[in-house]
Amino acid sequence: MAAADQEFYGRTVRRRSYQDESYLHGFLGTVGDLQKAGVLQDVTLEVEGRRFPCHRLVLSAASPYFRAMFTSDMAESRQKTVVLQGLDAVMFGEILSYIYSGTLHVSLDKVQPLYQAADLLQLDYVRDTCSSYMAMNVERSTCVDLYKFAGLFSLDMVQNRCLQRIARHFTEVASSEEFCSLSVNQLTEIISHDELDVKEETTVWEAVVRWVQHSREDRLHHLPSILPYIRFNLLTSDNTAAILEHPLVREDPGSCEVISNVVQEGNSGAKPRLGVAMEMALLFNAERGSKELLFMNPREGKYISCSYKPEDLPNVSAMTVTSDNNIYILKTWESEYEIQLSLSKYNHANNVWEHESMSYVSKGRDTCIKDYLYEVDQILYYLFVNPVVDSPLLQVRKYDWHTRKWQECSQHQLGDSIYQSAALSCSPHLYFLTSTEMHRYDPRQDLWSERNPPTNMPGICTAVAMGTDIFCTDFQFTQTMVYDTESDCWQKLQGWSNPGNRDVIVHPKLFVLENQLHVLLGVIDHDSELLGQGQSTYYLVYVYDRSADTWRDLKATLPDRTLHVKGSQCPVAHIYLPYLKNGT
Q1: What DSSP string runs through 118-144?
Q2: 277-579 in CATH: which number?
Q3: What pTM does this model have?
Q4: Is the pLDDT of residue 291 over 90?
Q5: Is 375 in contact with 323 (CB distance < 8 Å)?
Q6: What is the domain class of 143-265 according to CATH?
Q7: For residue 264, is pLDDT > 80?
Q8: Where in the chain is the domain with CATH 1.25.40.420?
Q9: pLDDT for 133-167, tens place per residue?
Q10: Comma-separated ranges of CATH 3.30.710.10 domains in the chain
């Protein structure tokens, strides 16, 4: 007899387990109420003179730090008042609020001390949430500060995001006061970056001079160790001569020797910088048989088309741009019994697509309604809709970079509006939405949950994340809405005013370019027909002004091609223009 079975009045009865969800949620609420009421508290924690009455059991259940403190022979296990060192009282109050409620409030001004407190108290969820929040809020004004903090705590994801931001805005960052606060190791890590966005290598030398002169007596002796990271092979002989004559170099004999050695050896191993990078949206040429991509930045009036080998872009199913600016595509082909997909990565420097060595992901023949590829916390997730009769399923697989295999994740049942839907990543979650449903996937818990849907939308055509907000619009671009992921609330925005007698014939696609919301749509102008000029079809690009709640026409002139987007929005990447070799 199996362990799950038992004999009862002569027949075998299978034992089953039931889980009371309301009890699980209500239990934490009750514990929080006890804390607020000051009932059954058996220990007081003192931080910076402030006293926090608590429950040993609750603290031990939440934190390995407290569990070790209260269940061992440590003196604190017997004390009624425990003084905690190395913590900020305000941040500890936030931590305590999370422990008793399960809700964590994070903002840019307190994310670093909050992370430090969570690190000391061994609260993994708080640490991971703070790390994701920092990575999501890396801007020009915060990148140096977050870069230094990430280095102290080995937060690789945050540090890499900061490095990319610093590299892309190096000239501006190098002129800031924060840049001068970097350590010598941090400075050399930055200036050794291949993707440093500088038009001339002299910009790097000038940044080094500014850093040294900020504290000349303490830093001058570091100059010989910094100089090898400057790519003298990219400098003219006049530039090099000018550096040799610079007062800092002349003052330090070791610096002259380093430069002479580097120049003599030719600095041959130093790669050219990737040069000027520009944010560009990526679109496919939809004409049959075309293997062409259009890289566009309508704000700068820049449009570059590149053609690739037929085997590079066959039957592209989905495309995504990751947080570290890698571009991936999923390619599909059919076998006798199933559809299979493989992954390719864009090589920026060579402007080619390279096949990723990986196990193929497969799906049944009837599961190709919707395909999405997105990244969360440096992990790729593949979502696809399986239109099972009367019960459509949203299925998820994540890619394990170590084993190079796809792993099954939790699937989720959908309603009947799967054809008018969108999926996207925002902060540490994935979202799938229709006009009547909003589903959120938490990768850390492999768990789906329901959120408030965008009511009164005629149908979801496209959606994109910007910060912690999600924007979406309908197929005719008549209505736009924004969703606040933190408050779980929707707000209606202004739609397209449609000046003139035009119809949308290419469905709109939202994208975020240079931190502003844009939309691309194709229209047909009936006024031109009335004037006897024939049918006029063209693309429009609008940018949204949130303060005025209006859409402004960028008056873009796109190439005469039929354009297509893979996914719920136009993917946007930093593209290094000198490497688009076969661009037109």
Answers
A1: HHHHT-HHHHHHHHHHHHHT--TTTHH
A2: 2.120.10.80
A3: 0.67
A4: no
A5: yes
A6: mainly alpha
A7: no
A8: 143-265
A9: 898 888 888 899 999 999 999 999 899 989 988 98
A10: 36-136
